[in-house]
Amino acid sequence: MTETSPSDSGRIAFLGLGHMGEPMAVNLIKAGFDVVGFDVVPAAVEAARGAGVPCVDTAVEAATGAEIVLTMFPSGEILLDAYRGVDGPGLLESAPANTMFLDCSTIDVAQAREAAELALAAGHRSADAPVSGGVVGAEAGTLTFMIGAEDADLEHIMPLLEVMGRKLVHCGGHGAGQAAKVCNNMLLGISMIGAAEAFVLGEKLGLSHQALFDVISTASGQCWSVTTNCPVPGPVPTSPANRDYTPGFAGALMAKDLGLALNALEHTGVAAQLGPLAAQIYRKFADEGGAGRDFSGIITDIRGRSQD
Ligand code: NAD
């Protein structure tokens, strides 16, 4: 643990009190941090207040007097608009000089770099720290943080991240956290489609789910999509397949993350074939009823399209 007390971090403006943000803010408060919250949706503010997060009425009010502005937003467009301000002053203008702008949302790598440039140009500091671990990890304080920040800024943000997460990886400078996240989630999407195709093929070849699991989970096909989030019910009792694909990690979020991967692939000119295909497959899955289902539910689509 970093040897800094919560009071050393100063006030944290926590913006975006949704599925992830609210429990993260609650954990910070429980650990003794001075947090003030804000969300554009009144119901989210009410829920956060009910959970013990003191909230203010505007983003500007939250940022004024903050030493850290922590954002947990749905998209990079929303983040950049909030930084710059739309029809009024933005967060960058409202915060005192040298505020740490810590964004934990999952956004485009290029947007993360742009956000950092804007923050630095306005006389602030910046870090991107997207997460993995979902709502369960947010509630339990066991998230993994992928951090893109200057070395000198780490000591300022580590005490907070240690409260909200269990594994913290400093991936490099600004944008490196988002870069790591997009690479990981592209692989995750591809591996889940592969796992689901393998289980459907096993069914057609007369293998039991358990027999195939016992082999793959200890053989060279082993991956998280099989050993933890197994797309068939039975072998891993905690996987979403055992509860009719209730997320877990929703298809809408996988489609979003693969869209970000697609942007990054195009931006960098990587000759990937499976990443774009996975993006297309999960976009269709999300658009056709899978948005609110766990992404391992892709197996039902594969079964549905297969011959009897
Ligand atoms: P969410 O939609 O539940 O929460 C986002 C919140 O931001 C909403 O309450 C929304 O009203 C608020 N918001 C939007 N614009 C705002 C603004 N200008 N000012 C203040 N608040 C604003 O989403 P979530 O599931 O909490 O996810 C948040 C981020 O974390 C996303 O980028 C997502 O991709 C990422 N993420 C989510 C999960 C997950 O399992 N839910 C897992 C890993 C990463």
From TrEMBL:
Catalytic activity line of the entry: 3-hydroxy-2-methylpropanoate + NAD(+) = 2-methyl-3-oxopropanoate + NADH + H(+)
Family: Belongs to the HIBADH-related family.
Keywords: Branched-chain amino acid catabolism, NAD, Oxidoreductase
Domain 3-hydroxyisobutyrate dehydrogenase-like NAD-binding: 175-299
Alphabetized GO MF terms: 3-hydroxyisobutyrate dehydrogenase activity
Pfam family, one: NAD_binding_11
Upper classification of the organism: Bacteria, Bacillati, Actinomycetota, Actinomycetes, Micrococcales
Native source species: Paeniglutamicibacter kerguelensis
Pathway annotation: Amino-acid degradation; L-valine degradation
Protein name (database record): 3-hydroxyisobutyrate dehydrogenase
Positions of the 6-phosphogluconate dehydrogenase NADP-binding domain: 11-172
